[in-house]
Amino acid sequence: MADETITIIDNRTGERSDIPIVNGGIDATSWRKALPDVLFTDPALMSTAACESSVTYLDGGEGILRYRGYPIEQLAEHSTYLEVAYLLLHGELPTAEQNEVWIHDITYHTFIHENVRKRFLEGFHYDAHPMGMLVSAVAALSTFYLDAKDIHDPGSRMKQIVRLIAKMPTLAAAAHRFSVGMPFVYPDNSLSFPANFLSMMWKVAEPRFSTHPVLVRALDVLFILHADHEQNCSTTAMRTVGSAHADPYSACAAAAAALYGPRHGGANEAVIKMLNEIGSLDNVDDYIAGVKQGKGRLQGFGHRVYKSYDPRATIIKHVADQVFAVTGKNPLLDIALKLEEVALSDDYFISRRLYPNVDFYSGLIYQAMGFPIEMFPVLFAIPRTAGWMAHWVELLEQDAKIVRPRQLYVGHDKRDYVPVDQRS
Ligand code: SDX
């Protein structure tokens, strides 16, 4: 099997080591045995497989995304977010009976402890960013469910997972209602997962919230598209903190904190701010010229893995058409379409294989549906919780070791202490 190995020759000693290529990778510990004094350096893990996983498959060159083998296009067309969450967690689509039990379990765990709302969330400053509130509230849940530390008990794990998936929309909506001075809306168990979230977001004085079914379905599809994405930054945070055997709420809060970054889940908020800054079609060419001169980045463009069109962006463009037919077209859409047209024909972006990613159009839909831009990363965190939890379970079932990388030390050599009166 010579073609399934690589050979390392240490030219300092002439020693040769054959290392097998397994599942498309070479085991770095084999490298260490061959060269114990030489480390790999890969600061952003751009060329490193941090783990083995069977949850999600990406092919960045072909623009392929599959959850447990199912193409994202088919799941977006035929499935629901809760069914996809079950698939990510259990590895198989649920039977009708399993789905019924799953939906019931999630539905009846949407309430949050009154102290989380009254004593915790309402303790924030009036203009607190809802994502900062969500990250904090998720961490705070670890103090309400002390059995969460039983991470080796599958039953306890699943109980926490159900709580997290179910309560994320409630916490998200509560943060929004607080930030706009509206009263908290309790979950309505007669509604679907996406409809219940919209009810908790928008219900005012009517007895029961209702909205256009196209908007409910559009939100469910957006949740499906954002449910998981392999070893992205926030999932890596989840796996890192989870590897320390922290409870799932603390690990999930770490993942949500990573997602908050504008390079990651905060990008759709940055896209809207960029489109507003551009302001009109006439300014598109000048903005693109500025990006090419290094005066900033085209938000919503580029991806560490996708070097072709993000398959989610293709689906989201279709969802946008359906939403705008109900809400009216987002006036920023024309600027976004012009930006895409100009960028995709410009060698600066083509040569760097920069295409619209999931965030380029999602913000336009959320804004047309009435969500304030501060809620956009929160809307990303709600569905990504299922993916984070699937990876958390996987790392525990793999009995993964604690994440503790090494470094290449480039600092000072040994030197002696200098008394303060002798320092220049
Ligand atoms: C998400 O990982 C995931 O899976 C994430 C995600 C998920 O579902 O979890 O898909 C969600 O985070 C999508 C990405 C959202 N972020 C943005 O849209 C922010 C804008 N995009 C970038 O900042 C950037 O593209 C990243 C962060 C997404 C990827 O950065 P990389 O892989 O580190 O690429 P890079 O910074 O090394 O860029 C390579 C080149 C550079 O040019 P040179 O230095 O070679 O001349 O491309 C340029 C960059 O300057 N470049 C851009 C650009 N993105 C990269 N130039 C202009 N506009 C951009 N958006």
Question: What's the gist of this structure?
Answer:
The protein is mainly alpha-helical and 424 residues long. It has 18 helices and 6 strands. The strands form 2 sheets. A 3-stranded antiparallel sheet has the order 1-2-3. Strands 4-5-6 form a 3-stranded antiparallel sheet.
Describe this structure in words.
The longest helix has 26 residues, at 154-179. The mean pLDDT is 94. The protein has 2 domains: 2-40, no CATH class; 55-401, Citrate Synthase, domain 1 (Orthogonal Bundle). It has helices at 28-34, 72-78, 81-90, 96-107, 114-120, 130-141, 154-179, 193-202, 213-225, 233-242, 248-259, 267-278, 284-292, 311-327, 333-343, 347-351, 358-368, 376-397; strands spanning 5-10, 15-22, 25-26, 56-59, 64-67, 70-71. 50% of the residues lie in helices and 6% in strands. It is globular, with a radius of gyration of 24 Å. With 424 residues, the chain is mainly alpha-helical. The N and C termini lie far apart (63 Å). It has a 3-stranded antiparallel sheet. A 3-stranded antiparallel sheet has the order 4-5-6. It binds s-citryldethia Coenzyme A (SDX). S-citryldethia Coenzyme A (SDX) is lined by residues 229, 232-233, 263-264, 267, 291, 297-305, 352, 354, 357-359.
Q: How are the SSEs ordered, and which strands pair?
A:
Layout: E1 5-10, E2 15-22, E3 25-26, H1 28-34, E4 56-59, E5 64-67, E6 70-71, H2 72-78, H3 81-90, H4 96-107, H5 114-120, H6 130-141, H7 154-179, H8 193-202, H9 213-225, H10 233-242, H11 248-259, H12 267-278, H13 284-292, H14 311-327, H15 333-343, H16 347-351, H17 358-368, H18 376-397
Antiparallel strand pairs: 1-2, 2-3, 4-5, 5-6
Helix pairs in contact: 2-9, 3-9, 3-18, 6-7, 6-11, 7-8, 7-18, 8-9, 9-14, 10-11, 10-18, 11-18, 12-17, 14-17
The structure holds s-citryldethia Coenzyme A (SDX).
